[in-house]
Amino acid sequence: MSDLIKLNKAFKPNDNQVNELLNEITTRFESIISETVVTITRLSEGQNLNFLINSKQSKKYFLKIISNKGYPNIKSLTKCYQLLKNIGMTYYKIIDSDSSDTITPYGFLIQSWIEGKTAEEYFQTSFEDMCKKPDKQDWIVHYAQILKKIHKIDLNYFGDLDHKVKFGSLRDYYLNLDIVVSNSFGEAIIENTSLWNLCKKGIIAKEFLSDVFKEIENLTTDLFINKKPVLIYGDMLPTNLIYSQNKPKLIDWDETKSNWWVYELARTLYYIDSMDLAEKFLNHYSFSDSHKEIDIGIRIEHIKQDLRQIYFAVINSKSSSEITQKVNKIVKRIEQSISNIKLKL
């Protein structure tokens, strides 16, 4: 319901508008790369408008026209790619970008294209099977191997790479999840609507939210003060793996940030509820944290994700009764995350 949370309208151009934009972007891009663009092919829809650019010199590029203001954050991506370059991952490169509204309302970026097979093609199995069937989950081993290298990139705070949200310790990050959540939508929300503002609007009970943060405080002991922040990929799903010459590479770094390594596993388990998957990842990843600490990290991350879902419940509902129904389900999930162990190995 737009009267409760005000949004910057998502950019959804028609075909004629898309063609006009592509002409402008192509003209600018050709002057940068000194090549001639031959074809532009629209790719499957994600949150943004994605295209494959082929040049006359047989080079390929990936174009993303941003649909939602501030997501992805081009500044964060640029910093991420520089950090990856420092450890030898030189295949991530932004060729051209524009975060202004000069050509498109929310900007665009063009990156180098990574050629290869998708995980479905490489393993010759479906996305659903890779999520549900333990014997089809070797892709998570490849993530563990790659992330061991990426997580050697140490950072000095927990939060966004553009420093919009920044905390000195993991415990501070957890105790300020209200700030983290309200700033996790890029610039899609016009006015910074906090969870406490949603309480005032009758979306969620203030007493419940206060209790949630008390429980988080109880869960996060002093052990969480000294956890190390590292570069986080943030979207560990089989759809984001490309196999180039039989070597796995990660694509789509839009969720990159600085956090504890457990964030990677926690976010994946939020979407894929599989202890077999978790065990396989942990067996191939190097860590010194206790299973209890990892479990708490997973539970708090799931609470954070569910707090975000409250916003979507408001945005995507047509009536107050529909919002109430959705929020009640979210509240139950949060209560389960508070009381129930998730890492059952």
How would you describe what is shown here?
By secondary structure, this protein is of the alpha+beta class. It has 2 domains: 15-113, Phosphorylase Kinase, domain 1 (2-Layer Sandwich), CATH 3.30.200.20; 118-339, Aminoglycoside 3'-phosphotransferase, Chain: A, domain 2, CATH 3.90.1200.10. It has 13 helices and 12 strands. Helix 5 (139-150) crosses helix 11. It is globular and about 60 Å long. The model has no long low-confidence stretch (mean pLDDT 95).
Quick structural gist:
It is built from 13 helices and twelve strands.
What's the arrangement of strands in the largest beta sheet? 1-2-3-5-4
The figure for the number of domains is: 2
Percent helix: 40-55%
The CATH architecture designation of the largest domain is Alpha-Beta Complex
The CATH first-level class of the largest domain comes to Alpha Beta
Number of H/I helices: 13
Structure class: alpha+beta
Number of strands: 12
CATH topology of the largest domain: Aminoglycoside 3'-phosphotransferase, Chain: A, domain 2
Give a topology summary.
Elements: H1 15-33, E1 37-42, E2 49-55, E3 60-65, H2 74-86, E4 94-98, E5 108-112, E6 117-118, H3 119-123, H4 127-132, H5 139-150, E7 158-159, E8 166-167, H6 170-175, H7 177-182, H8 195-200, H9 206-219, E9 230-232, E10 241-244, E11 247-250, E12 257-259, H10 262-271, H11 275-283, H12 291-315, H13 320-339
Antiparallel strand pairs: 1-2, 2-3, 3-5, 4-5, 6-10, 7-8, 9-12, 10-11
Helix pairs in contact: 5-11, 10-12, 12-13
